[in-house]
Input
Amino acid sequence: MKLLRPGDTQELAAIVSEAAASRSFLHVLGSGSKARLGNISPIDPAISNAVHLKLDLSNFSGVVFYEPEELVLCAKAATPMAEIEDLLAAQGQELAFEPMSYQPLFGTDQGSLGGVYMTNQSGPRRLKSGAARDHVLGVKAVSGRGEVFKAGGRVVKNVTGFDLSRGLAGSFGTLSIATEITFKVLPRAETSASLVISNLTSERAIALLCAALGAPVDVSGAAHLEVFAAEKLGHNSALTVLRLEGIAPSVNARFDRLARLLAEYGKTERLGCASSSHLWRAIRDVEPLAEPNDKIIWKLSVTPTSAPQVLEDIREAVTAEAMFDWSGGLLWLALDQSPDASAAIVRRAVARNGGGHATLVRAPEQCRKEIPVFEPQPGPLARLTQRLKAQFDPSGILEPHRMSLDTQNAN
Output
């Protein structure tokens, strides 16, 4: 696969225009940390003779502007997340949506800002702060037509009509190639603490987490680690964890109120700021399920109260280790079963318990070529997606098959 490394936006646009004219496929690469997310193009006779080009965006790196007083940061797409985090931390600020790192799952670095944006990343704080799309203010990008465009700006209230900068978040580079992204940032909490209750069943734990989220204590993290996951972090029983953040007096008062509210569930333990931060970073990055690295990893978005039953139904057919985040709304699974066999099992369990989305995150390449990594879309939504793709990338050259194994619209 030929490697192209454009030096600026105009050169990038020229490459895309030429690729569109010749129907050559472009595979976009920032740091490569998320290259193993999504589908892989299958070997298909209809496209076997097509030219595939790897587009390296490493020259699009660096902070464009950062205004701490205005809570706004703009950086080029390939800017390393480690650089972004260090810059914000020096000013006592952060990206509130807490983007995860795939280092434990894939052995990569923390990735780039563009990768976070294009995959719409979020971590445990999503239940309070939302995902990447909820914090993006503007984007500069190149469409599949080779047209340079920008959307949004550098303040929150600058959008009328369709918010394109948010709409592109989570598109995995299939609609456009982002070159610069502007995010709002927020002050980092002065301190944090976690309330922990041990040895609860999954059903009991989810009931606790939902009760806590309904209380006026401003929970910013709600997770349950079953025994397998908890043991990976040095604990000998299941852990149910709630995070509180803010100034110290407020955290202390809310912690005491939460402990009284949850007294019926068992003895509570408090983790201080350092221990709490370490635990939530591990939860964010799915570290407890990362090893052994031959396990198949699934990410399920379901109704929180249905999550324990989804897991039970899956376990009737396969061995599964699990951890729950977002108060049960996010269920991570580590399976021994081959992904092609487990896909039907996992998606059937989700469908019969209120519906949701099941995404295959880690699996051998061959399986990712043959089964849909993302939840298959119902007909009307799939047609809407195709029309949107046709507007931004009419030749179908950007990241073919990345989000769908449908070959009809890939060339």
Observations:
- The chain has three domains: 1-188+376-411, 191-284, 292-370.
